Each structure stands twice: as C-alpha cells, then as structure tokens.
Amino acid sequence: MGILTWTYILVGITFALYIGIAIWSRAGSTKEFYVAGGGVSPLANGMATAADWMSAASFISMAGLISFMGYDGSVYLMGWTGGYVLLALLLAPYLRKFGKFTVPDFVGDRYYSRTARLVALVCAIFVSFTYVAGQMRGVGIVFSRFLEVQIETGVVIGMVIVLFYAVLGGMKGITYTQVAQYCVLMFAYMVPAIFISVMLTGNPIPQLGLGSTLSDGTYLLDKLDGMLTQLGFAAYTDGSKATIDVFFITAALMVGTAGLPHVIVRFFTVPKVKDARKSAGYALVFIAILYTTAPAVGAFGMFNMLNTTSNREIASLPQWVNNWQKTNLIGYEDKNGDGRIQYVKNPEQNELTIDKDIMVLANPEIARLPNWVIALVAAGGLAAALSTAAGLLLVISTSISHDLLKKTFKPDITEKNELLAARLSAAAAVVVAGYFGINPPGFVAEVVAFAFGLAAASFFPVIIMGIFSKRMNKEGAISGMISGLLFTISYIVYFKFVNPAANVPENWWFHISPEGIGTLGMLLNFLVSYVVSRFTPAPPAHVQDLVEDIRVPRGASAATVHH
After folding, report:
1. CA dihedral sign, ordered 194, 199, 205, 207
2. Rounded to an integer, what distance in angstroms lies between the CA atom of residue 554 and that of residue 552?
3. Engineered SS bond to 123: which of 46, 84, 458, 467, CB 3.0-4.6 Å?
4. How far does Cα 401 stand from its chain's mean position?
5. pLDDT of 339-353, one tens digit each?
6. Structure confidence by residue, pLDDT tens digits, 463-514
7. SS3 labels along 208-249
8. What's the DSSP call for residue 496?
9. What pLDDT does residue 322 have?
10. Which one, of 367, 230, 374, lies nearest residue 296 by Cα?
11. How far apart are the C-alpha atoms of 508 and 497, rounded to whole Å?
C-alpha cells in the first residue's frame, strides 16, 4: 500500500479513537470540564501530562532544530526537561494543595485582588495563544504532506477535530484522549528511531546509536562533524551561541515551562496531593523517553539528509525531496547550472532550502523505511500537536468562563451557563488559534520558545513568591507581572517584527537573543515585585495564614479542590 493509503488508515483509526473517548467521557459538570472530576489515577495522569507536555514542538521541531543547530539545539532539551522538574518539585504540589483550578484563580485569591486576577488572566490567554499557534502550524504541516492538502486546509481539519473533543469532553475528555495520544506519539517516535539506529550503527537503542560507529568504522558524530565543516557549517558537536545566551535561553525555557498554565492544571485532576507528586514522577519518566531519543533522531536525520542530497545530480535526487517539494517546505535552485545541488552555508551559493520543521516527519522517508512507518509518524505528529492544543484551548476557555465571568463579572452565574460559556469560548479560541496556525509568526519551536519566555517573565515570579513569601502583596505582584511582560514583549516585537535586520548578536542586550530575553524579564519581575511589596502594606493576616498553610505538609493528602 502507498503512503497516502496507510496515512488515511492510521490517522483515521487514531482520530476515531480520540473522538470515541471524547464521547465516552464527556463532561457533565464544571468540575468534570475543568479538572476531570479530580478522580484520575496518577499513572493515567502521568501519561496525559506527558502528552500535554510533548507538543508539536517536542515531536516535530525539537529534533529538527538539533539537526540543523547541532550542539546549540541542546538548549531546548535542557530547558524543557529541567523546567518540568522545576514544576513538579516547586509548584505543582503547593498549587494542588491550594485547591484552585487555574493560575489566575491562584493569583486572584493569593493576592486578594481582582486586578491581579485580570493581569494573570491576560498573561494566561496571551501565552496560551502564542503556544497554540505553534501546535496548529504543526498540524497543518503534517496534513499538507501526508494527506496532500494545503497547509491552510490541514489547519482547518485540525481545528475541527480539537474543537470536537475539547468542547464536548472538557478536561475529562481531554485527559483520557491524551493517554491514547501519548501511546500513539511515543510509538510513532521510537519505531523509526530504532529502525534507523539499526540501519546506520547496528545498535537498536537510538540513545546508544548516537555514540556508535558506522559500517566504515568511523563514529557517527565524527563523520557528521567532517561533513558539515566541509560545507562551511560549524561542526555538529560545537556551539556557535554565546555561553550567556545558551544560559538565558535554557533558563527562560525552564522557568517558562514551570509557569505554563495548561500543565499546572493537570495536577488538579488527581484525588490527592500525594497523587500529584506521583503523577509528576511518572510523567518525567514518560517524557524522558522521547527527550533522550531526540538528539539521536536529529543526528540521524542530518546524516541521511546530507548523504541523499548534497552534491547530488538533480536528475537522481531521491523521491522524498519531490514528495516534500509539493508542500513548499523544501526547495532547490541550480544557481551555478552544473546540474547538481550544493548544500553549503554561504546563502549566495546554497542551492537547497529546507524548513527545519520537516526533519522528523521526513526522516523515515529519507531512510527509505516502510510506508506504514512513514504514516505512523504522521499519526504521531498529529497526536502530539492535538494533545497540547486541546490542553491550551481548555486553559483559554476556563480562564474566560471561570476567572473572567464567574470570579469577576458575574459571580451569580449558574453552573449550566458557566459550562456553556466555557464551551463557547473554547470554540472561539480554536478559530483564533487556527488563524495563527495559517499565518504563524515563525517556525513551530521558535513560536513556542517565545511563549515560554512570556510565561517566565509574567507567571513564574508571582507564583513562586506567592507560595514562599508571606510578605509578597498585591501591589508587588501586579507591578511585577506588568513590567516583566511589557519588557519581554517589547524586546521580542522589536527584534522579530519592527527591525528584524537588527536581530544579530551584536545588537542584543548583553548578547541575549529574543528567545532568551524572558529570563531577564523574569529577573525584572522579581526585582520590581520585591521592591514594590517592601514599600506598600503587608498582605492581610488571613492571606499570610493561607501561605503558611500551603507550605505545611500536615494533612496534605486530604486536600480538596474548592470551586
């Protein structure tokens, strides 16, 4: 069977499974819609958290970035993995004990202020939309190649699917759908990685294959270094970024991750605080499987890509190049008229352009794996993008229905109307997300990196100080969030949209790129929050008692979710 037939079969089966689960587990109350009724087992929640975590950026983009950036791509690995650990240890159990559905809910109650809640709400929606745009773009790329439709059409199909199970099932439907999506995306990621590792190095474990020798006795990474330096690129195992930028990007991804609202809310879906800790541990193991494999997938992809395209005659280019050319994500131009394709660093001489986001999806085709494996990767890419998109859309809809309507403007709203508002806002959010997926502000992982930077600069300091500082008050939190967010947005917008020509290390503050500026925004937030809170009145006694109570483990297992 051809790739298209296999893709229709495998994608069809997985979509039927997701929709079936959504119908089976549809939400009947706001508690089920927001936190799946609080009765999910730690193991299932660990899988769902891992699927929520491993977005299109992890599945599609991360290994693609590592393919082209080599050593520099490790910032994404370190930042996203470290961030999860930070979230699991420092934030999740305390927020779970506090017993609120959303981050704006925590901020509003902890800082006894409607204004603080609204600022947090704007931050949550802003970050979620930035992040979800990357997911919808990922969906569009997968559909455009494997179902042979336009990227725009692919985004629309993805919108319809997500809308169906996010609006119908809420968190309950999303949780069990994400368990299925985790199984699909991990299987789809590991099967081709194992195949290619065996083909290149004879080692079935991709993580070990990365450091193994090829059939000619040379080490894979040594061979890759030699191939790239010959073409004018930096060696694969050397970094070109300044150390301070590597540090700042990694830190922005770490603390941004820890402040991401769609992952934090996952810890409310289990019965007890103890279970929140357990599910965090399970999720880390599930996430590590993909994250430790990504460097191998990136290196295998780059090695095979160079072998099959660089300095090849146009007439003998492999079929995968022609397949992907239809999506406009790869292209070539014989500039010197020699009938061959030169892939070199010099842009004036380079004749091959490749979108970084295609490397993982094209990897099985480049390695000439069976058609069912190629289709399986398509199903996995869709599972990764849709699982995260659904989680984010739920955050957006919950923020609007719960924090904006119930907690701010209409406290007397009935549960039935609140549920209706949540579903309508989810539908509206899907449409906006789809627009950004069709007109994206950058490639998938870059867009997601900005979302993490914004989360780092806005959420992280107020959550951390809200948990660990009794002196932190509403004036400090509001001024900190606003200053951190405005500074980070201004820096990113200037270098990415207002004056992209100036987006070079010499012009950056302290050599910190727009991807890493969220860390500086976070430090500014901490500083402003601390100073303002010291010159303004201390929080009321009941709030200080609340902070004390969150941190005391006694009776933690009996903590319940309040609505």
Report:
1. negative
2. 6
3. 458
4. 24
5. 888 898 888 888 999
6. 899 999 999 999 999 999 999 989 999 998 898 878 888 888 889 998 899 9
7. HHCCCECCCCCEHHHHHHHHHHHCCCCCCCCCCCCHHHHHHH
8. I
9. 86
10. 367
11. 15
